[in-house]
Design a protein that fits this description.
By secondary structure, this protein is of the alpha/beta class. Helices cover 43% and strands 20% of the residues.
Amino acid sequence: MAKFDEYQAFITIVELNSLSKAAKALHLSPSAISKKLTLLEDSLGVQLVDRTTRSLAVTDLGKSFYKDCKAILSSVLDAEERILDTKEEPIGKLKLSCPRVLLQPGFFNLINRFAEEHPTIKIDFSVSDSIEDLVDGQIDFSFRIGPLRDSRLTATTLMETRPVFCASPEYFERYGPITQIPTSIEELAHHKIIIPTYINLADRIRSMFPGYGMLDIDLFHTTNDVYAQYQLVRQGGGITMMLDLMVKEDIRAGKLQAIFPAVQFPPQQIVLLHHKKQHQPRKMVLFKEFIKAKFVEVMSPEN
């Protein structure tokens, strides 16, 4: 019978649709993961994956076998978790995911504090804005911003965050007297604007300022990365909109200046997502309780 690590290799290949990506995810060489797949196919006497140097496709038998493999491994892992939960100290690995916007010192302080309290629990941390890995069972918890749209997941609201329009003092010194700081959304048209393309900023602005017209994206700087956006605004590239949790310290220190400070923009929720399971391992229960108790204390813009 094929070994469980061959099952895991096959499952990972199917889910990532790539031998090289599966090898990287499992910390193996491409040749090693290919060998595991070949051993599994040879032991079954069937081809599970059609592969060439340029493409990979799961066969019909492979698709069917994938579902069975997934169920088998899930059962085994759940059984292992129940055994581990009988130990005095919780043990195992927690797989966490969060978007780049949350990569703040306070957030990592939070993760490190949990790890210090529970040294037998190890953290496997990834950065992503997708929930697909969580749905597929590859991630235990995902931090996300925005409403939950997947019924297969459970969401715990941690806190609210609000958009902030901001620019650096150097920007106003460079492009005009301080009296030209915009006081209305219409006045933004006279300034250099940085548009994030990872959200629909046009829709977001219309929701904040009803009646405002269309944005011509060709007239503005654009970026698809929140940290590139942050650096552009910090270096005086223009005015942009970011979440308060990302720029709160810079605004307090005078490195950035809030635009429309009196306006309370619609909040967004920061949520902790996990897959719906009948049994939740003790390591997950402890992490969820810790985050619920400490998240606002560490991450709130008011703190």
